[in-house]
């Protein structure tokens, strides 16, 4: 980031500003632009996308709460005045501005090309930016979205007087702009929450056109635009437009355009599809020419596209899934009409649309229109409306839209059940091989769709595995893991397998490897934390009785399966008069997990009694190694870290009377029960630092009883975090972080977690 400078905004000198809603497509790019000006920028968002977070961090925008030192708070139009950060800013007398107000002030001293209108402005702006970048025209820009190419930032300060930006009419800030050039892609009555009548919106655009110092560009194909446009306005589109084009050839994802009218290009190549994108490209090239940029036929030949604008989520011979930001009936009609032509051309069997309404006010206003355009699809699947800060209203809920769509759909199926889980289940059930699926809406349906595709991938893996396994084997999608752990917290495994034999296990591991899926073993779950969001892996559990066998050999050694509980191992050994296993009594784990973690207690370690270990590698190879050949360290065995333990040969310390061995076990059990908590836990949370005890350090810092939610540092043993009822893994992790920080601040010792975070790495969370 540039050294912190200052700019004037809202009558204030601003060196540090904070953006609320910075993960949104409007405010995120503006924050990046502000950071490029040298201002210190921070921001927060309840649910930012990973793609936006990468761009923000790359630009030097710091993500976090409102900082102590701040000169200005900038809010997305979706942020309500009652938002806690807005309230905190008012309490601290920090000025608050909206995104559009800030952009208007930044544009005041620049030659602004304002891209506005109802449908397609982000695509048109992105095409204009691409053409100018390719032409070497060093203007600034602020896009209202993200490019599909992650290497192209959504905003740039630029080196000349020009600034290209989307301006939004939805919140009224459009009235603050006085552009050099205005490009209106089209007009439709939208945002009925703000513009009560069509005339209100017409007046807004007419006033913008009147404030424009230079050319006004409007689409010839939009009767409303040409009616509102001032005398002398230029047009783009087809036929007799001032800047015209026609598709001379469409090959794959590429358009070849014949340009006409005032356009200085005889032809252009555009990496995009369809008539609507041809119109957008014509508008972008017209604006570039009016700005004085050097034109060439290939300015848009490598246009990368914009996320959520007919983006391809999946393209296989079996299934194609597209996502699009369309959220107005006119946009959805154009999209589905183009996709319907692909079905008619034989590219797909059926057109399936998954739609999420955006805003209750818009849904209520256009409910009938939405229903009529949605039934262009063969199957309609609806998701709960995305309120965008609005409260539900009668007629504007998804159930209202569902009822109207069912009424006009005839025999075409229309599905709606409230809740994301039901929506995902409907998609998994109804989408078939050969379908073309359009995921449509401006809310969070893109995130939900990615979850569906992820679930579908796991379902496909389960289908591939099932015929390879014995009938007694168990496969389950979205299997809850909390009941399978001693902490009783966390989410589900995307897929869980319980094989019955080594052959089953080999099939599981090899099939997962072939499909690029990680395999994670889960024993008794005694030293494990499961993330609340679940585990993106195939979890292998050796719970079938075949893995819990205990066999005495003639030479005095013991063969034991990896699924054998340590408690049962001790009991069976005692019954057989075999000594040396007593210290394992009370460790709530299985043999496989104990070997992987080199479990220990009472001054002893499990590898003291191990002769050899049989395990399966990540590639499905079965290996057996003597204990001396393994790299065994404190709380780990390196070779077993990425493997699944199958069995072990154990070496008793000697022979003894069963009663005497059991008495010794009872003594150790009593000591353990007196020193350790009885509530659900994952065992010791931290490794002991060299020459010291983690529990002693935590207790010394007065942290016994420290609690976040239902996660508590045990009052019995400070190195245990217990679940007092309904603790989440997030609460447990927060408590781990807090304990580490306070111990380090007081003693200088940095504690390292001993418990494993299934499918995740602690370094990403600490």
Q: What portion of residues is helical?
A: 25-40%
**What fold name stands as the CATH topology of the largest domain?**
UDP-N-acetylmuramoyl-L-alanine:D-glutamate ligase
Based on helices, strands and strand pairing, what is the structural class? alpha/beta
Strand residues, percent: 15-25%
Question: In words, what does this structure look like?
Answer:
This protein is an alpha/beta fold and 766 residues long. The protein has six domains: 7-99, 3-Layer(aba) Sandwich (Rossmann fold); 110-291, Mur-like, catalytic domain (UDP-N-acetylmuramoyl-L-alanine:D-glutamate ligase); 309-446, Mur ligase, C-terminal domain (Protein-Tyrosine Phosphatase, Chain A); 469-541, Uridine Diphospho-n-acetylenolpyruvylglucosamine Reductase, domain 2; 549-662, Uridine Diphospho-n-acetylenolpyruvylglucosamine Reductase, domain 3 (2-Layer Sandwich); 677-764, Uridine Diphospho-n-acetylenolpyruvylglucosamine Reductase, domain 1, CATH 3.90.78. It has 20 helices and 44 strands. A ten-stranded mixed sheet has the order 10-9-11-8-12-13-14-15-16-17. The protein has a six-stranded mixed sheet with strand order 18-19-23-20-21-22, sandwiched between helices. It is elongated.
Give a topology summary.
Blueprint lengths: L6 E3 L2 E3 L1 E5 L6 H10 L3 E5 L5 H10 L2 E2 L8 E4 L8 H8 L4 E3 H9 L3 E6 L4 H15 L4 E3 L12 E2 L5 E5 L14 E4 L13 H14 L4 E4 L3 H6 L5 E4 L5 E9 L2 E8 L5 E4 L3 H18 L17 E7 L4 E5 L4 H16 L5 E6 L4 H6 L1 H8 L4 E4 L15 H12 L4 E2 L4 H11 L4 E6 L4 H21 L8 E7 L11 E7 L3 H13 L4 E4 L5 E2 L5 E7 L8 E3 L5 E4 L4 H10 L2 E2 L11 H7 L2 E2 L2 E2 L4 E7 L5 E5 L5 E2 L2 E2 L6 E7 L3 E2 L2 H18 L5 E4 L9 H7 L6 E2 L2 E3 L6 E4 L5 H19 L8 E2 L9
Parallel strand pairs: 3-4, 3-6, 4-5, 6-7, 8-11, 8-12, 9-11, 12-13, 13-14, 14-15, 19-23, 20-21, 20-23, 21-22, 25-28, 26-28, 27-44
Antiparallel strand pairs: 1-2, 9-10, 15-16, 16-17, 18-19, 24-25, 29-30, 30-38, 31-39, 32-33, 34-35, 34-38, 36-37, 40-43, 41-42, 42-43
């Amino acid at each position: 980031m540039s050294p912190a400078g200052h700019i004037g905004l809202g009558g204030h000198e601003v060196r540090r500003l904070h953006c609320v809603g910075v993960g949104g497509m409007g405010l995120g790019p503006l924050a990046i632009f502000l950071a490029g000006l040298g201002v210190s920028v921070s921001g927060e968002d309840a649910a930012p996308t990973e793609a936006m977070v990468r761009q923000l961090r790359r630009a030097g925008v710091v993500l976090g709460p409102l900082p102590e030192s701040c000169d200005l708070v900038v809010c997305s139009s979706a942020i309500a005045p009652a938002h806690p950060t807005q309230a905190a800013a008012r309490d601290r007398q920090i000025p608050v501005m909206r995104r559009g107000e800030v952009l208007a002030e930044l544009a005041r001293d620049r030659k602004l090309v304002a891209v506005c209108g109802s449908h397609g402005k982000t695509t048109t702006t992105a095409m204009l930016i691409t053409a100018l970048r390719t032409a070497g025209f060093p203007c600034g820009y602020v896009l209202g979205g993200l490019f599909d190419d992650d290497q192209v930032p959504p905003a740039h300060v630029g080196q000349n007087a020009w600034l290209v930006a989307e301006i939004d009419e939805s919140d009224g800030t459009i009235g603050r702009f006085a552009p050099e050039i205005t490009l209106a892609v089209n007009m439709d009555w939208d945002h009925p929450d703000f513009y009560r009548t069509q005339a209100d919106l017409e007046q807004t655009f007419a006033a913008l056109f009147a404030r424009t110092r230079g050319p006004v560009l409007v689409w010839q194909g939009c009767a409303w635009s040409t009616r509102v446009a001032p005398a002398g306005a230029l047009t783009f589109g087809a036929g007799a437009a001032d800047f015209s084009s026609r598709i001379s050839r469409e090959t794959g994802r590429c358009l070849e355009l014949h340009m006409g009218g005032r356009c200085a290009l005889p032809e252009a190549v555009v990496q995009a599809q369809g008539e609507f994108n041809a119109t957008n490209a014509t508008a972008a090239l017209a604006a570039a020419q009016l700005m004085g940029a050097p034109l060439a036929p290939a300015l848009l030949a490598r246009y990368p596209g914009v996320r959520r604008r007919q983006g391809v989520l999946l393209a296989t011979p079996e299934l194609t899934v597209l996502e699009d930001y369309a959220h107005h009936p006119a946009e959805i009609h154009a999209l589905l009409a183009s996709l319907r032509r692909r079905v008619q051309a034989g590219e797909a069997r059926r057109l399936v649309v998954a739609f999420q309404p955006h805003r209750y006010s818009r849904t209520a206003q256009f409910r009938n229109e939405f229903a009529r355009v949605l039934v262009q699809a063969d199957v309609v699947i609806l998701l709960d409306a995305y309120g965008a800060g609005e409260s539900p209203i009668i007629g504007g809920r998804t159930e209202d839209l569902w009822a109207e769509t069912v009424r006009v759909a005839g025999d075409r199926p229309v599905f709606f059940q409230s809740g994301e889980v039901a929506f995902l289940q409907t998609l998994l059930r109804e989408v078939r091989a050969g379908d073309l699926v359009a995921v449509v809406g401006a809310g969070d349906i893109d995130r939900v769709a990615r979850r569906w595709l992820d679930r579908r991938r796991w379902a496909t893996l389960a289908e591939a595995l099932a015929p390879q396994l014995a009938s007694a084997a168990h496969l389950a999608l979205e299997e809850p893991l909390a009941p399978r752990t001693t902490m009783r917290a966390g989410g589900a495994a995307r897929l869980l397998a319980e094989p019955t034999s080594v052959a089953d296990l080999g099939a599981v591991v090899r099939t997962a490897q072939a499909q690029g899926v990680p395999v994670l073993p889960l024993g008794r779950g005694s030293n494990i934390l499961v993330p609340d969001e679940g585990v993106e892996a195939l979890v292998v559990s050796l719970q079938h009785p075949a893995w819990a066998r205990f066999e005495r050999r003639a030479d005095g050694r013991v063969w034991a399966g990896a699924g054998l509980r340590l408690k049962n191992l001790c009991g069976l050994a005692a019954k057989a008069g075999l000594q040396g296993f007593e210290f394992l009594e009370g460790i709530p784990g299985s043999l496989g997990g104990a070997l992987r973690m080199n479990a220990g207690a009472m001054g002893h370690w499990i590898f003291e009694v191990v002769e050899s270990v049989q395990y399966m590698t990540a590639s499905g190879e079965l290996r057996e190694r003597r204990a001396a050949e393994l790299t065994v360290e404190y709380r780990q065995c390196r070779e077993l870290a990425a493997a699944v333990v199958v069995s072990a040969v154990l070496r008793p310390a000697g022979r003894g009377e069963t009663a005497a061995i059991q008495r010794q076990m009872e003594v150790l059990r009593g000591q353990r029960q007196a020193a350790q908590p009885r509530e659900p836990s994952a065992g010791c949370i931290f490794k002991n630092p060299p020459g010291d005890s983690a529990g002693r350090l935590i207790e010394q810092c007065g942290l016994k009883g420290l609690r976040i939610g239902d996660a508590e540092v045990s009052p019995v043993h400070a190195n245990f975090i217990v679940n007092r009822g309904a603790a989440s893994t997030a609460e447990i992790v927060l408590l781990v972080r807090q304990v580490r920080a306070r111990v380090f601040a007081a003693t200088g010792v940095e504690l390292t977690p001993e418990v494993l975070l299934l499918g995740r790495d602690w370094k990403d969370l600490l």
